[in-house]
Each structure stands twice: as C-alpha cells, then as structure tokens.
C-alpha cells in the first residue's frame, strides 16, 4: 500500500537539509516501512547572493523550483521555513501540514557585544531583512545597517571575518543547526517583532495526492498551525512580500489567540503597530481584521509607496 517512496524536494543549504531530514525521520517513524528520499535542488534565491532579496524582487525565490518539481512529479512534498513561503500557491499545490514551532524570536549574534543595548554608536549591524532593519533603526538610529546575504553559515562566517560588529539571525535556524551558543541574546518580540511564521516548518504537496496528505497528517501541530495561519491571514490581506517591513507574532492563551503586527518604513521613520485578541477558532478572521486596522492606521500609505502605487 505505502510501498512507493515519498520524495522530498529541498534546498541544499544546511538549514534546509536539516528541516527536510527532520520531516524524513518523522515520516519514517510515524509509518514504519515507508521509504522517504531527499531530492536536493538549487533555487534562484540560492544563486543570487550579491543583491539584497528585497531588490531581487519576486515572491518565493526559494520555493519556485521545488514547486515545479512537485507539479512535474519529480518530487511529492516540499519542506519550507514558513517565513519563506509566499502568500499564494500555484494551482494544484497547497500547504497541508505545519510542524511544531521552534523559538520564533530573532537572535542577536556578536563576537564582542552581549545585546543591542551594548552596541556603541556607529556599530555596524548586518541584516538584509527590511523588517529587522526598520525596527533596529527606529530604536537605534545611530547604528549602521549593512547588507548581509547567504545562508546561516555564510552569514556567521562574514561576522567572524570582522565585516560586522553584530548580525541578526533567527533563533530557530541557529538552534536547529546546533549553534545556539552563537546566540548572545534572544530579542524580545516587543523589540524585534518576528517575521510571519518564523520558527515554523511547513509542508507543501499536490492537493489531489490523498495518500501523501494522509501520511502527513500526524506531523501537523495544531497549535502552531493556528498561530501561523493567523499571522499569514494578516500578511495575506497586506499582500506582504519581502520588499515590505512587516512583523507579526501570535500566542495562544487557552482558547484565545493574541496577535500583534507592524508595518514600517524601511528606515524606521514610521511604524504602524496593532494588536488583536479573540477566539482561536477565528484565528484567520482576526488576522485579516488586524491587517485592516493597520491599513486604516497608516500602513496603506507605507505599502502604496513601497509598491509604487502612490497616486
Ligand atoms: N530567510 C532565511 C531564513 N528562513 C528561515 C530562517 C530561520 C528559521 C526559521 O525562521 O524557521 C532563515 C534564516 C534567518 O533568518 O536567520
């Protein structure tokens, strides 16, 4: 019945490989006898390394090749960092499983300083994320933000070579790669609101593949899924991509969900922030509601300007 192997399309970066192997092991454990194979591939986002992602443009630079492989039947599932998964999916594909979330916070990483507060005026901080840049600039306009691309290992190497006084990464990636000793401080969500879905791994597959969908069911973590779908509904309404500083974070408290989100100018000169709380059963509705609230409070002007729709 379940003899056909399941093939996982994955990027080749160490973090992507870790995540694919994590899903491979979880599937093999849940379904003894099932064979799960990895199909490593290179995506456009892995090739273009010299330009900030926000300038390369286009959503889903890291997922398109994986999706084509599934549509062409060369792979059955793709494992993604949820924060890299675009709002929309190609016809026939969809996200069916969200695994348990790792620490969603941003990480302050430095060889000389223990926290953002310790950084002297003029210190050079590496990040290419407009979201991280916006929030840092708003709090510390005296810092110098310098672009930093590449996978987690590349970014750490550039820090060690002395190009930066500190860099900002995601705690989750460092923890998965067993490099948590690099985290000088986990940055509180109030200081750096994480990216939508940060710290969670999601699985995409062909929606008509009932066998694979059934096999994936036990890997879904419903609390994480509720939180991530709430954050994504907010982002969806804003049509957020990587060209826009958008942060978001949610938590479950019993049967209630609390969601915070922000939209900012890349230079931190303006940040529109809001919160909403309500029944977890309405998670996606609440996400959309918060997005509408942000748009009414000034996020629309920021987004129009960034997307070049200004009248
Ligand atoms: N954009 C790259 C990316 N995608 C997911 C993670 C970290 C792991 C996660 O959020 O699940 C990272 C690296 C980083 O931001 O430090």
From TrEMBL:
Its cofactor is dipyrromethane. Residues 6-212 form the Porphobilinogen deaminase N-terminal domain. The modification S-(dipyrrolylmethanemethyl)cysteine is found at residue 242. GO terms for cellular component: cytoplasm. Keywords: Porphyrin biosynthesis, Transferase. InterPro entries: HemC, Porphobilin_deaminase_cofac_BS, Porphobilin_deaminase_N, Porphobilinogen_deaminase_C, Porphobilinogen_deaminase_C_sf. Gene3D superfamilies: Periplasmic binding protein-like II, Porphobilinogen deaminase, C-terminal domain. One of its GO terms (molecular function) is hydroxymethylbilane synthase activity. The keyword Oxidoreductase does not apply. Its EC number is 2.5.1.61. It comes from the Bacteria. GO terms for biological process: protoporphyrinogen IX biosynthetic process. Binds 1 dipyrromethane group covalently. Residues 226-295 form the Porphobilinogen deaminase C-terminal domain. It catalyses: 4 porphobilinogen + H2O = hydroxymethylbilane + 4 NH4(+). SUPFAM superfamilies: Periplasmic binding protein-like II (SSF53850), Porphobilinogen deaminase (hydroxymethylbilane synthase), C-terminal domain (SSF54782). The keyword Cytoplasm does not apply. Pathway: Porphyrin-containing compound metabolism; protoporphyrin-IX biosynthesis; coproporphyrinogen-III from 5-aminolevulinate: step 2/4. Monomer. Tetrapolymerization of the monopyrrole PBG into the hydroxymethylbilane pre-uroporphyrinogen in several discrete steps. The porphobilinogen subunits are added to the dipyrromethane group. Belongs to the HMBS family. This is Porphobilinogen deaminase.
